[in-house]
Design goal:
This protein is α+β, with helices and mostly antiparallel strands and 106 residues long. It is 44% helix and 29% strand. Strand 2 and strand 3 form a beta hairpin.
């Protein structure tokens, strides 16, 4: 499973929906969405400012993450950004990879 974090910014219509069904209603809906693509909701937090919500889910692959993001973004009640989270062990493996990269101008 891959850990993904979605940040969500509600539209005015989305804010009205949250006000109507509450935070626990959104939590339940997000949990069902994650389960529908073979994943599991890990956490959901509401915030104020530029980001209205933080959702962390365990998903089977990036295709499932993209499907969830597409579904939410098409709903016109929120826009989401997806962050793929990595474990320290995955970062250890990445640090050991050799990449043949040339910076611009070098």
């Amino acid at each position: 499973m891959l850990a993904d974090q979605f940040t969500a910014a509600a539209t005015p219509e989305g804010a009205k929906g949250v006000a109507k069904e509450g935070g626990s209603g959104r939590r339940d809906a997000v949990a069902k969405a994650a389960e529908s693509v073979g994943g599991k909701l890990e956490s959901i937090f509401f915030a104020f400012g530029g980001v209205d919500g933080y959702v962390t889910v365990d998903l089977p692959d990036n295709v499932a993450a993209a499907a969830m993001a597409l579904a939410v973004n098409q709903g016109n009640t929120a826009t989401v950004k997806t962050v793929v989270l990595m474990t320290p062990e995955e970062m250890d493996k990445a640090a050991k990879k050799t990449v043949k990269y040339r910076p611009p101008g070098h």
